[in-house]
Amino acid sequence: MRPTMDKNRIIIFDTTMRDGEQSPGASMNLHEKLRIAQALEEMGVDVIEAGFPIASNGDFEAVRDIAKVVKQSVVCGLARAARGDIERCAEAIKPAERGRIHTFISTSPLHMKYKLQMAPDDVYAAVTESVTRARSFTDDVEWSAEDGSRTEHDFLCRCVEAAIRAGAGTINIPDTVGYSVPDEFGALISMLFNRVPNIDQAVISVHCHNDLGLAVANSLAAVRAGARQIECTVNGLGERAGNAAMEEVVMALRTRNDLMPFTTGIRTEHITRTSRLVSAVTGFVVQPNKAIVGANAFAHESGIHQDGMLKHQGTYEIMTPESVGLTQSKLVLGKHSGRHAFKEKLKELGYEMGDNALEDAFRRFKEVADRKKEVFEEDIVALVDDELSRAHDRVRFVSLDVVCGSKHRPPSAELELEIDDETCSVKTTGTGPIDAIFVAVKTLFPHEARLQLFQVHAVTQGTDAQAEVTVRLEENGKTVNGQGADTDTLVASARAYVNALNKLLEKREKTAPSALSA
């Protein structure tokens, strides 16, 4: 990861579990973060930003536990330019075989005046002080100029030079609010290479947000100008309009290697699987027309397109579905399949499960197989992700019966839940079946959370397809997403609401610092 690396090798820095988690509702628990970290390492991600250790005990524990299990990737923690932040981050990454402290401070006139309320000279002094302190804990320090794209050039050059002189091996220039356009951002990186005398002693990184839909384009423009690290997230997850999408960055570099002769260490056949995992964990459904990982990314409905594809695949596909790990959905298992066949299929799909989790997943699979004529790989992925996300829940779904219809009587729901290992049930009514279910949950486990989003999509085709439901709850400014999957949409809805409720219970204990980096 040092500047002596191959000049055409692009370092992929994933911040799904830090910046991505700042998306409203995208909170992840420790178990979920460990699953994502393992997937990122298997994919070949160079640097995994595992969290913001000072933010909460949960974030600290996540970074520390990921540092213990990840062996190939660098494990990174974020810290503001404050002694407490840096020391807490150093403690969190201490178990890592390769750990990094990523410290930052705002450098734009707007941020310095209104956010930091600091004079430029004080910010400049803080750059040297924070990097020097971080270097006392690790040889791998990254420094970021928050709101770098709106920073005055002279001051940015001074700060970058100071950070490198203090020992930062990576310098990150963020487009924090997604304000830049590609020509402008590329020129900014070129300016730094031309004006900072010790620039050759560090890897230049970029972290672009997508407020104008230009995050990937800006990142690639920076690479062409000399940047050699791109900070990105799976599915472009991130606050506001999100971050540069890792899958788009990687596949753009691979597909247009004629114009951008650079390489990454990403095993692209893992892209689809990791995208689905992040979507299942966060409850953020990938839009169908999303580049690379959307359901329609390799679909062809137009007659002209279909005719061209039949004659030559390259007429309308610039990359193959297989290159991103997408395989044609096929009937793989049925209601007569046994545990061994199910376990082997899970291994083929990239899942390793303990005996108890495997038994629960197999039971769910048999229930699905009894209700569906055909069981596809997508069905198995949905139910297993649904099962794994509930491994540490306080509130668990047990059963549901709903009565509804057009007759003149209120829809009713009879719900059974397991709460802290105690089974309880209730029968309630509502304005509709979903309302009756959610009233039942609220009766069994009273809370003040408000429903902000209810969304349903089919996992596969057909009227017997599994429904995957996303529910978003908000309580005292804290927002969480929950997901549930089942062939019965009402059951999936109950599972999703309960999943969101469990995430809310975890998030009640988290308190974030007053200022976060983007």
Give a nutshell description of this structure.
The protein is α/β, with parallel strands linked by helices and 518 residues long. The chain has 16 helices and 16 strands.
Total domains: 3
**SSE class:** alpha/beta
Number of strands: 16
Q: What is the residue-mean pLDDT, rounded to a whole number?
A: 90
The parts where pLDDT drops under 50 for at least 5 residues are none
Count of alpha/pi helices: 16
Roughly how many Å is the radius of gyration?
A: 24 Å
- According to CATH, the homologous superfamily of the largest domain is Aldolase class I
Main sheet strand line-up: 1-2-3-4-5-6-7-8
CATH fold annotation of the largest domain: TIM Barrel
Give structural notes.
The chain has 518 residues and is of the alpha/beta class. It has 3 domains: 11-282, Aldolase class I (TIM Barrel); 331-388; 395-507, Alpha-isopropylmalate synthase LeuA, regulatory domain (Double Stranded RNA Binding Domain, 2-Layer Sandwich), CATH 3.30.160. It is 39% helix and 20% strand. It contains 16 helices and 16 strands. The strands form 4 sheets. An 8-stranded parallel beta barrel has the order 1-2-3-4-5-6-7-8, surrounded by 7 helices. The protein has a 3-stranded antiparallel beta sheet with strand order 11-12-13. Strands 14-15-16 form a 3-stranded antiparallel beta sheet. It is globular and about 75 Å long. The two termini are 22 Å apart.
